[in-house]
Structure formats: C-alpha cells, structure tokens
Specification:
Layout: E1 13-19, E2 26-29, E3 40-45, E4 53-56, E5 63-64, E6 74-75, E7 80-84, E8 87-90, H1 94-97, E9 102-108, E10 116-118, E11 126-132, E12 137-143, E13 149-152, E14 161-166, E15 174-177, E16 210-213, E17 225-231, E18 238-244, E19 253-255, E20 258-267, E21 276-279, E22 310-312, E23 315-317, E24 331-341
Length: 353
C-alpha cells in the first residue's frame, strides 16, 4: 500500500491570504500547486474585530454562519457570492472585503456542490451529502427528527472530526472528535471544556456509512435544519488526535506523518481556554506564533495565544507552556492538514525542516 494517496494536498485544502478592496465582485484566487474550487470557505478579517464567516456550496452562496457565535444562519448578499474554479468571489461586506484590510481564507474541496440525497426514515434524518472520498471530506445537510437516528455522510470511511451547526436556532456549534469519543462534545464558539454528560451521539461511534445523532438541539431537534462538516483521516494528508501537555517551553512533539499546513487545537479537559488555529500562510517560517481564536471575533493581533510551536517535516512541535496549548498533564485535541506528505506515494521523502 502506498504511503499516501495525496501527493499534492493543495488540490483539496488551501489557505489563502488576500487584501480587501471594498468593492463588489472581488475575486480571490488561490496560489497552491493545484487549482482548488472550494466547497467550504472559512474567512477571517485579520485587521479588525469582525466575525468569522463560514460558507459552503451545499447551503449555497451568501448563506453565512460564524464560528465565534451561536447565531442562526443569515443570508447576506454582500458576502461570498460565488465559488470559482480556483477560489471564490466576495462583495463589499466589511467582514469579507474592507478596503486595505487583510484577510485569511481556509478552504476545502468536497464535490462541487453536487449532493446525494437521502429520504427521512423513522428517526433517521433526510437530507443530502456531497463527499470527496479521496480527501476524506463531506458536507452533510439534514433536517432533524428529534430521536436517535442515522445520518448518512458518504465518506466510505469513519469520520473522526465532525462539526455540527443548528442553522435555525441560537444553538452552539457541536464538535465530535475521535479522541473524546461518543456521548461527549466540544463547542466551537465557546471556551468550555469537554461536555462529558450530554448524549449527543446516542453513545454510538460513527461508522463508515453513518453518524448516529441523539435527539438534542445541537444536532437533531425535530424539524430543524442542520449542517455538518465531516472528516476522515487520510494518511499523509490529515490527522485527528490528542496529546498530553508537559507544561514546558520544550513541549511535546506530535507525529503527523506530514508537514502541516493547518492545525486547529483545543484544551479538552481540566480547564477552559480558547480554540487556537495556526497555518503556514500567515506563518510561512517557524516558529508559528500567529494563533487565531476561532471562538472569538477579535483582531488576531490582540490575542495572547502566541508561540504555538514549529511545523516540521513530519509533525508539530509545541513551543510554549501556556494553558491554552501545553499545561502539564492536560489533554488537548487537534485536527491537522498537510502542506506535503513526509513520504510521497512512490516512497520518496518529500520535505525537510
């Protein structure tokens, strides 16, 4: 078996920086090795206190959600209005295109907006999914049933990171992560530690075909519209896991099997801290110090979550002792995507650090 099936991760995930011009129809073009028409776009203004903006091709253009808020989905025609062959297009809303302000856009490819539909059956929600099985990513939209039911995700592999949002009600984002297991959850828009009591997944681990959701408002209230972003790990491209902090500036090394391009992390137990996100576009050289808190609308320069460590050829080295990422004896979860695999599909080492 080949070490990886993805020699060029930029065909499936890219981080792009751009400068706003304050006008309509501002095209943002990606700069990766491959062209990428995104299906999930997550934008943050780097120069101002503006909300995170999340769009996807299943819900359609102009329909936005915010990772820093429990707010309902809003249709805003002045935001992202097109998914393009190698990027996307925005209009003049300040959260996506203020003149002379700097933005970051994190993007993933699914299936170009083409969905496979599923009919509701008993407690099993109906809706649709668009998936890219090569990259282990699917976007699932469904209508809740209020009971423990199966939601089809289309990956053909077990998802290990799932992001849910109730689109119709002011309900926090719900995170499933393999390291904390079923029946538990984290909230993307808050600092809260893992919820160890709520039965969000009917105490059932996802399988290669479906996710089991309980009857709770965060992911399966009757008659409510939901969106879920589902990821299965792909060797050499993506990984979901956890580590235990040591409280030292010489922090743990987390083996990934690739040089990371994007890492999201969160303190899961024994305290509350912001989510942290680092990428190789805002920090093109080590150390990676420009963490963005995905649960806050802050100007990132105002954040104290700095010094997150080094992105190496085969993993991530923590370089700070702060509680948000390396308290002694505390568990942290992470999700990472590759810049390049450590070893190519032909068995050749690809990077050095």
């Amino acid at each position: 078996m080949a070490y990886t099936t993805i020699d060029d991760p930029s065909a499936y995930h890219q981080t792009t920086l751009y400068t706003g011009n304050g006008g309509a129809d501002r095209a943002v073009t990606n700069g990766g090795n491959s062209d990428l028409q995104p299906d999930w776009v997550w934008i943050k203004n780097r120069d101002a206190t503006d909300a995170h903006m999340i769009f996807d091709s299943s819900r359609g253009v102009t329909k936005r959600l915010s990772s820093d808020s429990n707010a309902v989905e809003v249709t805003d025609g002045d935001t992202l209005d097109a998914f393009q062959s190698d990027g996307f297009r925005v209009d003049a809303d300040v959260k996506v295109n203020t003149n002379a302000e700097e933005y970051v856009a994190w993007q993933w490819k699914a299936n170009g907006g083409t969905r496979t539909t599923v009919t509701e059956s008993g407690a099993n929600p109906g809706g649709g999914h668009q998936s890219d099985t090569t990259a282990g990513f699917s976007i699932v939209d469904y209508v809740g049933t209020g009971g423990a039911g199966h939601v089809t995700h289309g990956l053909g592999a077990v998802p290990e990171w799932i992001v849910f949002k109730n689109r119709d009600e002011t309900e926090s984002w719900l995170i499933y992560h393999v390291a904390i297991g079923n029946g538990k959850g984290l909230r993307l828009d808050t600092t809260a530690a893992v919820d160890t009591t709520a039965n969000h997944f009917a105490n059932t681990t996802p399988n290669a075909n479906t996710i089991v959701v309980g009857g709770n408002p965060p992911n399966n209230k009757d008659g409510v519209n939901y969106i879920a972003y589902c990821f299965a790990p792909i060797q050499g491209y993506s990984k979901m896991g956890s580590f235990i902090g040591n409280g030292s500036t010489d922090g743990p090394f987390i083996y990934l099997g690739f040089r990371p391009a994007w890492i999201l992390y969160k303190r899961a137990t024994d305290g509350t801290n912001n989510w942290g996100l680092i990428d190789n576009a805002r920090d093109s050289h080590n150390p990676c110090i420009s963490a963005i808190a995905t649960n806050l609308d802050n100007d990132p320069s105002q954040l104290s979550a700095k010094g997150s460590g080094d992105m190496l050829s085969n993993g991530w080295k923590i370089g700070a002792s702060a509680g948000s990422r390396n308290a002694d004896g505390v568990e942290y979860i992470y999700i990472a995507f590759a810049e390049s695999p450590f070893v190519s599909s032909t068995g050749i080492p690809t990077t050095a650090a």
